Amino acid sequence: MQISIVIPLLNEQESLKELHDWIVQVMQSNHFSYEIIFIDDGSSDGSWETISELSQSNENVKGIQFLKNYGKSQALHAGFKAAEGEVVITMDADLQDNPEEIPGLFAMITQDGHHVVSGWKKKRYDSVITKNIPSKLFNWAARKTSGVKLHDFNCGLKAFNHKVVKTIEVSGEMHRYIPVLAKNAGFSDIAEKVVQHQARKYGSTKFGAERFINGFLDLITIWFVSKFGRRPMHLFGAWGVLMFFVGFGFALYLGVDKLFLNPMGRLITQRPQFYIALTAMIIGTQLFLAGFLGEIMVRSRKNDTRYNISDKINL
Q1: 309 - beta bridge partners?
Q2: DSSP letter for each residue of the chain
Q3: pLDDT > 90: percent of the chain
Q4: Which of 150, 151, 162, 262 has its CA 20 to 30 A from that of 122?
Q5: Is the dihedral of CA 137, 139, 142, 143 positive or negative?
Q6: How far is it, in rounded angstroms, from Cα 23 to Cα 98?
Q7: pLDDT in tens, 224-248
Q8: What are residue 226's phi and psi, to 5 degrees?
Q9: Is 21:38 a contact under the CB 8 Å cutoff?
Q10: pTM of the shown model
Q11: Which residue has the higher pLDDT, 177 or 164?
Q12: Cα(first)–Cα(last) distance of the chain, in Å?
């Protein structure tokens, strides 16, 4: 199979049939072998019934239904796990991603040899104040922090080599940073393609301004995990040892001063250096223990179930 199209969705019933027909037209005109995997992330509007109807008329349509809303990252994880195509393409279900971009994305993976190709919505049809400006700020911070030079981390239209999606683990709210996860896993050939963005045709966006706040917090998380996730002792242990020796240095100074230099001076407990030494040594010990416990957790960690599936179609 050449292409797996993974589409996470939440309450997008109105757009599903139109999106399906559009994708099928593109697939047939380019003679691609394909599958469309819809992941219903706890919809309450009849989206699953529409997916079931589409699967009856098209055996290439497959579906995964979550028991409740778990989030886009968990939906993509389930879709990646089920995907069988040589190239895996993700897109949103709201018709703002153009299926006509699929052949170009496919060629960049199969012919140009890129591991990941991320869409760039250079011209957007979103609100300038609530989406465009915050998005530009967010993408700038993401580029500086991650080292991945993409203009649009939030674009849902992306293409992946099959090996990438079977290697990376998308959890929490990390769907924005899949290219960063791929880079950290060793898939460094990451490219970008300008794609057409379309105005929303049905319904309203499911994401508010809080997604940018969450995005920045996730950015800090992924930076930390990429650098110290497998070796927390290197961070906490190093800072712990540093703080402990700072405190020990103050304590040594106080001891020498009291015993040899100024034995008739103030009591040690009346000097501010005493409390600096005590605090630094306690904090240093705590940081070292945090690193030690982190190492134990990393080495004994088991994969937890992050979502529950209530139904499947053609899988």
Answers
A1: 66
A2: --EEEEEEESS-HHHHHHHHHHHHHHHHHTT--EEEEEEE-S-SSSHHHHHHHHHHH-TTEEEEEESS---HHHHHHHHHHH--SSEEEE--SSS-B-GGGHHHHHHHHHTS--SEEEEE-SS--S-IIIIIHHHHHHHHHHHHHH----S-TT-S-EEEEHHHHHH----TTGGGGHHHHHHHTT---EEEEE--B----SS--S--THHHHHHHHHHHHHHHHHHHTT-HIIIIIHHHHHHHHHHHHHHHHHHHIIIII-TTS--GGGSHHHHHHHHHHHHHHHHHHHHHHHHHHHHH--PPP---EEEEE--
A3: 52
A4: 162
A5: negative
A6: 9
A7: 766 776 678 888 888 899 999 999 9
A8: -65, -30
A9: no
A10: 0.74
A11: 164
A12: 15
Backbone dihedral angles phi then psi of residue 183, each to the nearest 5 degrees: -60, -45
Tokens 């990252």 label which residue?
73
Whether residue 60 is predicted with pLDDT greater than 80 in this model: the reply is yes
User: Residue 208: what pLDDT?
Assistant: 53
Using pLDDT thresholds of 50, 70 and 90, give the confidence band for residue 140: confident
Ramachandran quadrant class, 218 (left: phi over 0; alpha: psi -120 to 50; beta: rest)? alpha
